[in-house]
Amino acid sequence: xDVNKIRQDFPMLQQTMQGKPLIYxxxxxxxLKPQSVIESTKSYYEQxxxxxGRSDYDLAHYVDEEIIxxxxxxxxxxxxxAEEVVFTxxxxxxxxxxxxxxxxKYLKKGDEILITxxxxxxxxxxxxxxxxxxxxxxxxxxxxxxxxxxxxxxEKTITNKTKVVALAQVTNVLGFLxxxxxxxxxxxxxxxILVCDGAQSVPHMPTDVKDLDVDFLAFxxxxxxxxxxxxxxxxxxxxxxxxxxFMTGGGQTAKFDLCGDVNFLAPPMKFEAGTQNIxxxxxxxxxxxxxxxxxxxxxxxxxxxxxxxxxxKLKKYDNIKIYNENSxxxxxxxxIKGVPSQDAASFFNSHGIAIRSGQHCAQVLIDFLGEVATCxxxxxxxxxxxxxxxxxxxxxxxxxxxxxxx
Amino acid sequence: MSTFKLTPQLMRAIIMDHYENPRCRKTPEDLENYxxxxxxxxxxxxxxxxxxxxxxxxxxxxxxxxxACAISTxxxxxxxxxMQGKNIDDxxxxxxxxxxxxxxxxxxxxxxxxxxxxxxTSKQPARIKCATLGWDGLLDLLKELEExx
Lengths: 406, 149
Prior knowledge:
Shape of chain A: globular
Radius of gyration of chain B: 15 Å
Number of strands of chain B: 3
Low-confidence stretches of chain A: none
Oligomer: heterodimer
CATH topology of the largest domain in chain A: Aspartate Aminotransferase, domain 2
Number of helices of chain B: 4
Largest sheet of chain A: 7 strands, mixed
Number of strands of chain A: 17
CATH architecture of chain B: Alpha-Beta Complex
Shape of chain B: globular
């Protein structure tokens, strides 16, 4: 993997912020886009700007073919079948589709939904809604002291009343990689389904839904080099058939007559009411191709190395507190003694470094960490050791955070 | 204030002093005599209450309480201290001038006192909200008061 060559593909990496070369370390929030993704997204509006679904003329046929190809490439990325890939607006919509279309339909009073304190709001709030509507109960699987979720704890918490286990494969604040395969096995043994939030994992490592045996997997295009507003819900085909569409109407989602008899089309079409985000699908296809070309195993290995390197350097400073030293992903959650996280983020900004401060959409984690807010730096495969060096240097000087105002 | 030069060192010292020892930071015991407003920002941790007591057109007391970063803590602390005893018109004038300063417009520096330490906030546009959170809260309370009368 030639990082310097890869960096040439990303126009944002040629930019400056506050007059300094941009060091982008907010990849858990969204990733930068390579020129090829920008071009294919644009190509839809410049060259193929027609609607799908009829193929009566050449342009429409081309767009239809591209969408089929996009579904196939995304399926290849996660080792699924193309008809198990539903296009959505992103992870939040994907999880909501499962919560509303499956959870609301099948859960009953007293059933249990298992989540953890480390989940992103998009894997918490839809389940709260399911619980509120159906009378099901939310149960939190206890985390280890360092924030890790173990298979043993899942085993201790799950019961035969559990119907849904909803977990992020990698959480967005602490970044621990959980053993989804083992947890899926436990869930299935108890008759529950496993809903996996893959927003922070699919972009960063090889994913094999067949091997993991997850029932649903949600992820976002924009966190894996793709455009915003496009994402994926993977579901086992039988489960997709049992799931109700959360939105009905436009496009080819159903055959119906004046008597109100409605026959929904087979998945994935029944979930894709209305004209889709076609340019987003074009961009997502190119993004998935780009990732497959680089190699997900290489991406994972490189990011892990970069994270280890950053941690080993940061640890030398007593004023930097790291909350997730041992987690596997490229997410580093930290605070600088005496500097509120937001003020630290401004200090990094003044040196051209983009990191994120705050609660990172995982507000239930705050009790766990005992902190109101943290700083989060997150890498992707286009980041370099030199960028980490600069990041650490600035972190070590952040006590001067007020300098940015003078 | 305008008689000596506001150096970066002095500005830093003033902000740190208000951040580490915030003034007027409490929830008043006789809360029923106060107008109050919650100011927060979905984009960050800032989540504060501003409390105002006005008698005979005079700002008798302004307090604040809550979770805030260094910039919003210091700016709200300075504001509360400055506003005690001002009549409403003066208070509104000061807020207006402060906001002009933050927006890089011409402003009357003679009324801003220690609040001048935030004159360069526009260098970090993402933090303008922090530097104005408490000020916007007081402004809303004063407007609400005028509407009620």
